[in-house]
Amino acid sequence: MNKAVTLGELKASGYETRSVKDEMRANLIKKLKAGEKLFRGVLGYEESVVPQITNAILAKHNVILLGLRGQAKSRIIRQLTELLDEEIPIIAGSEINDNPFQPLSAYGRQQIELHGDETKIDWVTREQRFVEKLATPDVTIADIIGDVDPIKAAKGGHLLSDELTIHFGLLPRANRGIFAINELPDLAGKIQVGLFNIMQEGDVQIKGYPIRLPLDVMLVFSANPEDYTARGKIITPLKDRIGAEVATHYPKDIGLGTSITKQEAWTERELGKNFKMEIPDFISEIIEQIAFEARDDQRIDKRSGVSQRFPITALEVVVSNAERRALITGEKEIVPRISDVYAALPAMTGKMELEYEGEQIGAQKLAKDLIKRACGVIFEGFFLGIDFAPTVRWFDEGNKLLLSETASAEECAMLLESVPELVESTLIPLGFGKNDEAKLVSACEFVLEGLYAQNKISRNEEGGFEAVTKTRRDRRGLIYDDLTDMEGYN
């Protein structure tokens, strides 16, 4: 089908324009009737966030997404463009996507007056109708609304009071599309006033003279709930104008968290045909559990949150450390171990904002504590009811075991054979045999870490395991001592 190139052709085609919110509503209805999934790649919001956003669009409301960092707010906002038509017509050369039937700008009106039905038409795609801005304190009213452009005035021979001298800001340029502002509370109050006024009243003053701009825009905002409610940096009239307030959240369970991390993490490496990588389920679950532990820890700032990027980047580093070991040892089977989780500390410490107590302990020690606790939780899930008493007794007799993170699976397997009943007990719930050396070593190291988490054995700074040398205490007390006065322990 040939697209219209003039206003006359557009009229003859029978094309009818509609507001952007009507357009999004109609396209959403089509998707719902067809059973299409909304917001591809966003997991865990099917029963919470997605229905609320759907209702807001059906009601033709502006929306604000409230949530801590790493909760897919930006991904959701950017996918709203899929509810726009593939293309819409505008007056050719218009900076603000002028509707050919109802132009807003002086330029658009002038084109219609001069050329009538011969006015040139351009078509803009849905991607071109999305404008996004990160709110920062240095954003000006000129950035958002616009300003007088002296160069336009000089070149066109216009007075500065002429509407043709305006350089339009981001909001007018988003006309007939979606305008998104991330971190709305960081926008200065006077800018918020201008944003509200142009949307509520349809006018704005640029350099002292009024201009009517009844824009057709879907407004979408994002904000941290702490900024939004406690610091009170969103002006009341603007909050009142936002129709729907949708709260996002972190994954509610480990299974969902691991699915998100698996989807987002770069683990499909180009290893060559001779290499094989396998990530055990318990490693994935431990990494996710670390994030859950961090979100519940009183020593970590809950107002800042622990992003889902925490387990994603941690898993990527865990895989990389296992890959590095394979390159050093020449092994063909790459299976991450607990020692690789400890190697991922640099990917964890930078993603935690610490409270006073956490700062006193230090990010490194706190992260090690989180690993220990996470291993304890996942260990109990895999090995509940299995007796590792002979293994613990072997360490109590003064034996020690060091599994170097760069040692091959074959070397580690030989060392593990010397620990009574460790290998046999480990294999019971995991479903693979002794011949799977790489997976066996990973699983046995997981068991040792679990016993350490239960304070049945100790773990030293070099990653070696040995007997508990101090009086046994409850788990919470031992963790506290680990982080303060126990030298030589993680």
Task: Describe this protein's structure.
With 490 residues, the chain is an alpha/beta fold. The protein has helices at residues 7-12, 20-34, 49-58, 73-79, 106-115, 141-144, 150-156, 170-173, 189-200, 225-229, 236-241, 254-264, 281-296, 309-329, 338-343, 345-349, 356-361, 363-383, 389-396, 409-416, 422-427, 437-453, 475-484, and strands at residues 63-66, 87-91, 121-125, 130-134, 146-148, 166-168, 177-182, 203-206, 209-212, 217-223, 244-247, 276-277, 333-334, 401-402, 457-459, 464-467. It folds into two domains: 7-247, P-loop containing nucleotide triphosphate hydrolases (Rossmann fold, 3-Layer(aba) Sandwich); 254-484, no CATH class. Helix 12 (254-264) crosses helix 14 (309-329) and helix 13 crosses helix 18.
Major β-sheet strand ordering: 4-7-10-1-11
Q: Give the uncertain stretches in residue-range form.
A: 471-490
What number of structural domains do the residues give?
Answer: 2
Class by SSE composition: alpha/beta
What's the CATH first level of the largest domain? Answer: Alpha Beta
Major sheet size, sense and barrel closure: 5 strands, parallel
For the structure shown, list the relevant keywords:
single chain, Rossmann fold, 2 domains, five-stranded parallel sheet, three-stranded antiparallel sheet, 23 helices, 45% helix, elongated
